[in-house]
Q: What sequence folds into this?
């Protein structure tokens, strides 16, 4: 009898090629089940939640593209990823939004005894998130928080982080940095830190502490969240959306029409 396939083997079997980035073909409940299974089996890996921003950063950097394609899961964080899946016949594919995935995993964790560590944020966001999540989910074990500087860690800071994580023994380390910074961090530090899973969830730290207001549900479900975020944070986001969104549409049209082929390297 053959051995049960690992989470990575199952996830690798069904990836949607979006401009050379392998997006996992799944929906929210499947993503939750795979995360919990990987944690239960102590299967190490990092998980990217990927939308247009991540896919476009992968066009500018082969390193970032490779990081996405080596991920245990690369979930469809934005509706354009889901629409691409539907066009390719994956009708059950659904959005796996980073903040939602975080809530789902934390809600399931007390019964499973999973331990969590929050890495990221600024001005006390990680500690505030710890208070918010443990209040929301009684019994949730948040065993450590760390707010890194806005630059790569130096040798002393890296050593301190390694010691802190080793003492805390988390199962899941949530990374709340911006893309592609969080993807680069996870790829570099997964081998260095004593943790089973790393999950990059971007702005989830700010959303779940109430520092940044989320778009209404109907906007999140119809692919209009970017417009709401641009309205709320125009100075920070206008360059990103102006640079990425029109080019993404043009490149995807070229891929769908067969004008350019992409490989999952």
A:
């Amino acid at each position: 009898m053959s051995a049960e396939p690992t989470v990575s083997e199952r996830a690798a079997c069904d990836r949607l090629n979006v401009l050379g980035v392998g997006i996992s073909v799944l929906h929210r409940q499947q993503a939750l089940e795979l995360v919990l299974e990987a944690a239960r089996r102590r299967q190490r890996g990092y998980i990217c939640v990927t939308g247009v921003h991540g896919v476009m950063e992968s066009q500018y950097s082969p390193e970032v593209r490779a990081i996405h394609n080596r991920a245990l899961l690369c979930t469809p964080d934005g509706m354009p990823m889901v629409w691409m899946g539907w066009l390719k016949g994956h009708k059950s594919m659904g959005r796996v939004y980073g903040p939602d995935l975080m809530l789902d995993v934390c809600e399931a964790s007390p019964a499973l005894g999973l331990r969590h560590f929050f890495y990221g944020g600024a001005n006390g966001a990680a500690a505030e998130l710890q208070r918010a999540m443990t209040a929301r989910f009684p019994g949730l074990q948040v065993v450590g928080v760390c707010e890194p500087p806005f630059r790569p860690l130096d040798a002393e800071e890296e050593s301190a982080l390694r010691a802190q994580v080793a003492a805390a023994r988390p199962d899941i380390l949530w990374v709340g940095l911006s893309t592609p910074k969080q993807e680069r961090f996870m790829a570099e530090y997964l081998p260095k830190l004593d943790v089973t899973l790393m999950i990059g969830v971007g702005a989830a730290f700010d959303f779940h502490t109430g520092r940044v207001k989320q778009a209404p549900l109907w906007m999140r479900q119809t692919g209009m969240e970017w417009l709401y975020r641009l309205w709320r944070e125009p100075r920070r986001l206008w360059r990103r959306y102006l640079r990425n969104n029109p080019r993404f549409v043009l490149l995807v049209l070229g891929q769908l029409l067969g004008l350019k082929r992409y490989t999952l390297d």
About this structure: The chain has two domains: 7-208, 223-256. The chain has a mean pLDDT of 92.
